[in-house]
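Sharing a chain and its predicted structure for anyone who wants a worked example. Both blocks are below, sequence first, tokens second.
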Amino acid sequence: MITDSTELDALLEPWREALGNDYHPYRNHLLRLLNLVCERIQPDAGIWRDLVVAAAFHDLGIWSDRTLDYLEPSRRRALSETAAGGLEINERRVSDLILWHHKITAFRGPEAALINAFRRADWYEVCCGLFGRWSWRAERRALYRRIPLLGFHRVLLRVGLRRLRTHPLSPLPILRW
């Protein structure tokens, strides 16, 4: 079980102030997300680095750009900040992980197994495990005990309601078919 990641913390630290009270709920979401992905795939070092980068930035546009239409802003920040920091990543892989993580149907394309594992893990997290084929087995309960929610779903609700008030005809622009 991954309960800490210095790589993840280094990517999030510059955003601690922007995340404010949402920092710890978001960080825990990312740690759970990485654990859930690793239940499906066994990443090598390069894939792991790209997963951590994609995880760190996948929703960050909510705070950095103050929008719920955050997929492209999140992708741009991931690529620019890793380049500025000298971190070598597979840009296509990181871009695809971020841009397709809210796809409702299965992703078809290069590295579909990885992207679908990431996509399913995020859906599992957002939906509290209510949908999908992943059950609440003992390992899953242990994950949520070790890395608690800390109000993560309240964060999602707050952001979603704010978007609904300002864009009632387009409440979830991040969904992809």
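Comments welcome. The radius of gyration is 15 Å.
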